[in-house]
Amino acid sequence: MKVNTKRESKICTEDGGIILSIGMIVKNEEKVLRRCLDSLKPLMEQISCELIIADTGSTDSTVEIAKEYTDNVFHFEWINDFAAARNSTLEKAKGQWYMFIDADEYLDEDIGEMVHFFKIPELRSKYKTLEIMLRSYGDDAKTDYVDGCLVRFQRIDDPNDPIYFVGSVHEGMWIRYPLGYFSTIIHHTGYVYSSQKQMQNKKERNLALMREEYKNNPNDLRMLSHLLDGCNAYPLEMEKYIDEALKIIKTNRGHFYANVVYMQAITYYKKLKPEYALQLCDEYYYNFEKADNCVATVAISALKLNLLSSLGRYEEACNELKNYIRLYNDYKNDKLVLTDMSAHPIYGLTEHEYYKFLYTGALCFQKLRKYDEAFELIKDLSFEKLDGEQFRELLGTIREICKDKKDYAYMAKSYGEIMKTDSNDKKSLALYMLENVYYSLLSGVDRQVYALDMINSGVTGKYIDLMRLVVEQNDSDGFKTKLVEFVNNVDDWNDGYSEAIYLSIKYGIDISENIEKMKASLFRVKLEEIANANDDFAEYVYNYGVPESYTSSIKKFYWITSLYEKASYRCFELDDDRKYELYNRFVSLLGDYVMNIYNPELLNEDDIQVLPNLHKFGFYMYQAQISLNVGDNVGYIRGMKKALVNCESMREIVNFLLERFKKIIE
Q1: Which residue pairs, CB below 8 angstroms and at least 24 apart, start in 424-432?
Q2: 217: helix, strand or coil
């Protein structure tokens, strides 16, 4: 059903004419076109509008969909010139104002600001150009995006002041003053590609058009700026364009694209030539008194902050952070001129980027051992509001500061706040952070300090209860009862509670029934973490023995086998007799485990080659043990050597067992 453009309730011009002409060019946009056109309906239902759509050669249902919304759909023969295609819709426009939008974009639901503007004649006649916020997404979840304030509206009712598109690619219209702004958002999903090939094809198509236009006008700073976005994969070409652009700017510092070209050049060189990039940051300000009023200066400051931090110039970085925060707040409070955003999306303006620079600054203060200043930067950030990368970066910053300061109360406070959220992912990450820090502390004294900081923080929670067990641990029945109660009440063993496993092994607590709550895929990972963090791990495993309760199911069998495997790698504190016993328990468990999970009839020397190396090792060790049991010493040695060939990581164990065996039979 087409949009009714003749409803009496619509706001028209004084003579009943069209207020807004909306132009589009399309080609094979059936997947997104309806979303775009539906988003325009609320505006078209309240303002007298016309919709003009030029199709440049669609082979899907794009044209049919377009005709559901307007009769003004026509074919434009594609001539490798986006401006020409846009101008074909502009030429047909009959409204007082003209707006353009693409099929992979859609208008925000809140259009009250736009309706208010177009319904007041005094406002409509006051401005010649209007910009609107374009938010370009980089992922399907719409968490990765950049904002740009682009010219999308031009007044076209004055024949003495014509307007038209320029640029065969990345086409646009020049700003005419007076200039106004809409804070309403146009959402853009055109950079969310279905495949790398689709992305590369689009880049190469645009790049070919830009190169051709550059040949015709090598002094066009607008096109050079666009080339700097498209030539990242061609370093020599990229650096040539940067040099050309900077030469032009030195003779025309006030050019519309001058500020953003500096931003692009610094971004490119920040890793390749960081000192040169810093020089460009300083050059940006040179002979440009109005720099602090420009929105691009936010990006320059953010880039300089990153550069100083990466070069280890932390004092200067902290000073630049203050400058960035001031500029960012000026932007948020509408104190900066936004013209640069019409030329290019500006780095450092989104809340996500702002938080990232706070984390960078906090880490710089940490390097300077100014811990209070570091915490001051991040103290008001909400764990509830932060998601994904922001949340992980904040946790990482807190971890690094607390580790360096050796004061873990802030981590405890963070844990308490995160446990109040509804996100299981955040809770899991918080527990992972706590466990990671705890196991990074090499001495028992440091771990006691950590645990006491957790307890004395006043925060409550299951992890704090575990730290109490760490501090109070002993071999008494009362402590063991508390430990058993804790272990039995753990619902999720994925993160944070590995120390409870270690304490259970250390004090001989049977946790075989709790194994069923754990993910088998994590057994080896968790046990390796515990083993690497505790030099006495193998001794406690040796004393733990092999309780029958751990061989009653395959899952438990796998756990006890993995337990002994990790202990076998870390048994340097055992004397040779106990090491010999530990190794024998391990290879015996592994052999029995392999024979339990595979059909013995299928286990022959040809078929076992498809098994994991560790399981092949277990099979041959099982065969070697059978040989030993029947007095076949040669068969035992041969089996051991075959086991080693199939699992080189077990060399130390095999060599040790063979040496002991040779001593026994001599």
Answers
A1: 426/383, 426/391, 428/492, 428/494, 428/495, 428/496, 429/391, 429/392, 429/395, 429/495, 430/395, 430/496, 431/463, 431/494, 431/495, 431/496, 431/497, 432/495, 432/496
A2: coil
Give the C-alpha separation, 294 to 287, whole Å. 14
CATH code at 23?
3.90.550.10
Residues 124, 247 within the same domain = no
pLDDT value, residue 193: 65
Does one domain contain both 58 and 186?
yes
At 78, which amino acid appears? W
34 and 179 share one domain: yes
| Token pair of 15 as six digits | 């003579």
CB 474 within 8 A of CB 468: no
pTM of the model: 0.69
Find residue 52's DSSP bridge partners: 23
Q: What is the dihedral of CA 556, 557, 563, 569, to 10 degrees?
A: -160
Cα distance between residue 655 and residue 647, in whole Å: 13
Q: Are 181 and 226 found together in one domain?
A: no
Residues 202 and 212 in one domain: yes
What total number of domains does the chain contain? 3
Of 191, 206, 239, the residue at which a domain comes to its end is 191
Domain boundary among 156, 172, 191: 191
Residue 202 lies in a domain: yes
Which residue in the block uniquely carries the two structure tokens 């011009």? 13
127 and 151 within one domain: yes
Cβ-proximal residues to 486 (8 Å cutoff; 6+ apart), any chain: 462, 465, 466, 469, 500
Predicted pLDDT of residue 144:
77
Q: Which residue, chain included where needed, has tokens 């500006």?
A: 346
Q: Please report the sign of the dihedral spanned by the C-alpha atoms of residue 293, residue 298, residue 300, residue 301.
A: positive
Q: Are strands 129-137 and 145-155 parallel, antiparallel or unpaired?
A: antiparallel
- Cβ neighbour number for residue 354 with a 10 Å cutoff: 19
- Is the pLDDT confidence value at 3 over 70? no
The structure tokens 């496993």 sit at 501
Span 278-336, pLDDT tens digits: 999 999 988 777 888 999 999 999 999 999 999 999 999 999 999 999 999 999 998 99
130 forms beta bridges with 153, 180
**Which residue range(s) make up the domain with 202?**
193-252
Residue 394 tokens read as 């904040």
Residue 530's CB is within 10 A of a number of other CB atoms, namely 23
Q: Do 38 and 113 contact (CB within 8 A), yes or no?
A: no
Q: What is the layout of strands, in order, in the sheet containing 97-100?
A: 73-75, 49-55, 20-26, 97-100, 145-155, 129-137, 179-188, 105-107
Per the domain annotation, does 123 fall within a domain? yes
The pair of structure tokens assigned to 326 is 């001031």
pLDDT score recorded for residue 4: 38
What is the rounded distance in angstroms from the CA atom of residue 640 to the CA atom of residue 568?
Answer: 16
In a domain, 69, yes or no: yes
CA atoms within 13 A on the CB side of 53: 26
Q: Is residue 393 part of a domain?
A: no
Averaged over 94-101, what is the pLDDT?
Answer: 96
Q: 198 and 164 share a domain?
A: no
87 and 145 co-located in one domain? yes
Residues 421-451 have pLDDT tens digits of 888 889 999 999 999 999 999 888 999 999 9
Please give the Cα distance from 362 to 395 (Å, whole number): 12
Asked whether 524 and 562 are in contact (CB, 8 A), the reply is: yes
